[in-house]
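Predict both folds.
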Amino acid sequence: MPGKFDPLKPVVRRLARRLNSEDAGIALAQFQLLKLLAQGAANPPPPSAPPAVDRVGIWEKKPGPSGTEFIRSVKASADWCFWADIERIPAKSARKRIVWLGESVARGYFFDPEATPAQFLESVLQQNAHDAEVIDLAKNGLQPGELSQLLSTVAELQPDALVVFAGNNWCSGSSLSFPELMQLCECLPERPEEFIAQFSRHLQNLAERLVGQITATAEKLGIPAIIVVPEFNLADWRDDWPPAIFSGNIDTRWRTLKARAETQLAAGQLAAAQASLNALAKLDHNLAPTTAQMRGALHLARQQTEPARAAFEQGRDVALLGASNRILSPRCPRIIQDTIRRRAAASARVQIVDVPALFAAQAGVPGNRFFMDYCHLTAEGISVVVHAVAQQLSVLRPETAAASLQRVPLPIAARTEAIAHFLAAIYNSFWGQPQSLLQHHCTRAISLYPAIVESMFDFVEFRSAPRADWVYAACQRLCSVAQAKPYLDRFIQKKVPLRLVLAIRQTLPRAAQRKRFDTLLLKRAAPAASTAVNLLDDPFHFTVHHFPLLFRSNPLNLAHYVAKDPTSEFTLPLSRATPMRIALCCRLPLGHTANKEVTLKLNGRRLRSFTLNGRWQKLSIPVAARLLKKGLNTFSIHWPAAGPRVNQALLTREINRLERDRFIDLFPSHGEISQFLISAADFSAQSAKV
């Protein structure tokens, strides 16, 4: 364990370098930070009295006929969608009051507001002779600071018990202070292992503080507290990222070995797969989560449960490197799980519901049986966790033995569960999950509620069409479902990943439905003689590296497309084959001076090969009608290897972005495109000019 963290050291080191650069603004900010840190160390602020509480979450404190009530604040209406759809929290009555706090897993993501864990917990308690109410304070996206704030105000609700289901959002970079960010900056160029170690120490300190606050709150109020330790979808979630730029010139070899190992695993060639995975680990120094996750799959194929779990957990935790890129899915790493367990054990008032242990007892290495995506629970997963919490809450009624708890069926309608699985398919596709997982959710949705097929058609129709969503009746139909609207509203960009389109089509049970789906895709007709289609606007093109774009229009401030994979694929639906022409402007990433070969393919056949370097090049490429087909046509650009270790100027730029707590890009770039137009062959050269 490293020594005590001195927040001055990383600031001083970076400031010294800044003073020799032109970045005076950051240098001034660091001077100011040094002053504040030094003053804080020498003169810590005196303890102040806690401010008066006038609200809890989005509910404002108001006097009521039976005592203090909390009414949902109109001023906070923009945040209503993140919380329980409850207008009023009544005054405390004679009933036992359990306050339920947590993140999106506790909110019941995908099922909310039709069915939530808090509602189900109240039902289980009441059907087991507990006269209890559950106040639902779970919030989608709850950050550590917000949890701390809720804990400081929860006494106003006069709870008889607390349940806290949180930890998945604690590893987001938003909880880092400026000095901690700069200490991480010191590690990135050459010491990624130290990056993980420092970040893990930050997570441990954060978990210590939050569990300590939960414990202090329970002891102050004289009530029991239950902390639910989150689990991760170990068996089926994939963080399929290439090695980051500080891994050197290994990208092409790594991808080749990865593809070989995947093929060997699929074919059951386990000894050969193990050899390939060993070679992969030597290349990426066990810093690519994919390698560890594939090793877990190898152990599962050999029915080695414990080694499989260890490998999957390693993949989950080494992925913390992705936190700097904002492409890390929420998760509760081992350092947080163990800190919760250790700190809770030190207090008689705090108990835990250990979800990793619960799921391991029933399924070994947990996967899609309990999880909708990386951490959000299926109906069965919710049921297992809620019953375990209810059993712990037997302390509220000592005369009722915990062992006598009767299990209660989860009251979720088939339509609600089907919609949840379809939403999960959409969400998983944006996280770059394999098509097999998307088909699993689509198949499950259709089996539960066959009419969900119409919602699938609606989604593909308005998300792949060029105009704003709201002008389409399909959007209005789907968004009229209260369960679906909050999830669809989050996505700014109009995207339908191609693997989701293919998964939906594959799971449609009837030939007539598949034919209708094909007709829907062809609504984006072939370009007329006076128009051109920009393939960079292809709604079906999407990779996990584009995930931040779903929520912000352009977080990296890019003026062009950047290829993060060695092959970039774009689709063009055509109602008929006709001669066309491509106007392409592209280059290799900055720093590439030598010419390298790039190949453009159409539907798997070579269309043109050409050489590129780091300067923009314009190309005009004819496309014969015989090479095209009715339906989806795929244009693929095959880029050269990512090249040697990135130059220091680019690395410094990304570290500076991290220092400002902005989106950064630590993964290799293969190529860049400023324009990719395709038009009918007689489209004028002047109009198609790049």
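Second protein follows, with its predicted structure tokens after the sequence.
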Amino acid sequence: MRTLPLFTITTLTLTAAPALAAENLTIVETVIDRPTVVTLGVQVLIGDDDDRDAAIELRYRAMGEAAWQVGAPLYRVRPEVVNLQVPQQFAGSVFDLRPDTTYELELHAVDPDGLDETWTVTATTRPVPGDPAAPKVIPVSDAGELGDALGAAQPGDVIELADGTYGGTWSIESSGTADDPIVVRGASTGGTILDGEGAGGNVVEVYGSHVHIERLTIRSANRAIRFQTAGAEGNVVRRVHIEDVNLGIGAREDQLDFYICDNTLVGPLAWPNVYSDDGGVNANVDGIVVQGFGHVVCHNEMVGWGDAIKTAQDGARAIDIYGNITRSAYDNAIELDGSTGNTRAMRNLLLNSYSPLSFQPIFGGPAYALRNVVVNVKDEQTKLHANSDTGETVGAVILHNTFVSPSRANQVQTTDTAHDFRLLNNLYVTRAEPEGGQTVLFSAPSAHAEIDYNGYWPDGQFEFEGVGDYPDFAAMQAAGVFEAHGTLLGDDIFASGYVAPASYMPVVEEVDVSLSQSSLAVDAGAPLTGFGGFLGAAPDLGALEAGCAAPHYGPRPENVDETAPAPACGDSGGENVGRGDVGRRRRRRVPTPAAVRPATVRRAVAIPQAAPIRRAATRARPRPRPPVTARPAGTRRAPRPAMARAIRARPPVRTARARVVAAARPRARRRRCCWSCSHSPVAGGDERTCMSSPCSVSSPAPCPRRTTRSSTVRSSTSRCSRSPSAPPPARATAGSPSPTPRS
């Protein structure tokens, strides 16, 4: 197998317990993936832990800052079912970082079999690509001058094209450097045109590294741009308009650290032409293709492509795809196929897609789909399929997405097993009468799947291959396999009143799927530390937290980039304090299993491409790991054991007590009333008696004191009211006939 280009982290001596048996986790090596502009990925290579009861938590802070931020716990990879050479490991990403900033990452590994170990590594995010440090401006105004300038290009050259049409095809053989790239830039995107005049190849071919192509229109050929050299590094396409081509931007294997952002690509296909119409003949009419590691594809606008944005190399890692808007995709809007881990599709707007998010396959993961808005899906929302050549998918992490589809709310149709995936805090909405009466048709067999805290509308059949076919949501939930904490929504979901289209064929141009303040999706999610903040008692379901501004999708205004990120909204659910920060204001903590803080923290040094230095097998005193305990009666329901590790939200320094902290900040149109309910059997169901009181002294508004009503749902305990005068609503129980399952 080819060795993947990674940065390894050389750690100094650590205090650790010796492995007592194969059940005790052994830390082998810490690896930092290639950094991107706003994200860092980490792998902790391990041995043993055959009983899989170990966990690794993560905190981070910018170098020199006192306060720690709590990141997402690392994800345990299952390489034994991967058809690619992947080591045993924990892996994960740290999101929403600042460009060109060095961070400390503190890792805390605990195994009840005897290991408790903490260590620190450092890593630096990439800067946003900029102009040369020593620019040499070369003005050109016709095709001859452009050809001469490209042929003689040297590091630091800024080749500035006057407005006009430049006919022909162009090749750039030279390379710039990281500090002094070669820049090819038009006077204006609309006015400076490279016209391929119908060429059967590429309008622009780039053979070097650190070449920037900016502010141009490229048109009239088979493909607009191709980066032709395997292993090329640091190339940029920015503020380019591409049209009248069959293919957009192409790549070669093992390329590194590209930045393809703020472009508009118009492809040759038209909605509603989709994959199932013609057997996929246009599936490889690709918009943006990247191969290799460390790429950023952001804030592009895509329309008319087979696959709009895709990874195309098995083993790819550390790729960010964010802020894009895809307006039509004949097949996949975003394709993470073949990636090994720490590939991330986040905060994209995906409209009019056959199967918008593809994981066919993932080689271990985690491959993230986070806070994407997905509207008008023809087929499957998330394609958890195998590849006939490379095996089944393993390690998709699908969190906080909003899916609105005209056929079914969630559909996966394959006979291949999907392994070790997570569907949490998503919002699945379809039309009032879903196809075949099926709200969910999940025909893929699943292994080690975690499906919980999702919201659905409407009620209907819920079919899960190998698990059960349930007539309605209540029956599915009562079975106790999936959605122990899921929510059946009412029809008041979106503030705009938007409903799922009756058919996929009309083009959806614009859509507002921000939540209604009275939606049952509000505050219904699990607190997942490290994946964005929330405002209320718990995260809202779906991509958009009520009360927070929606992300910007598509090209950004001139001179706006990641150096000026949008302000964060809400509470991340963890604490941002370090040891000794007594008296500092603390963020709200979400209840999690308690952990014991190790006594020592050692620092590590990042050395790119260095051979690993293994930790010393020094004996340390085993530390106890407190058990997971349920919350007191009358508070929000505790996560089931399978969820505990996924929503661990505080670092090892935390104490063992569990508590509920109401939000002190005001929130429009929400009353902070805390409810506790009891149940007693009555004819035809049970009777629920609820008492309310203000959640905290900062919420002094009067609350209704007592209400009683009957329902036919199982007993439950709700925490906060949805309106000023009523306790939490009961879940609906409507059912629908069971059609014959599709093959």
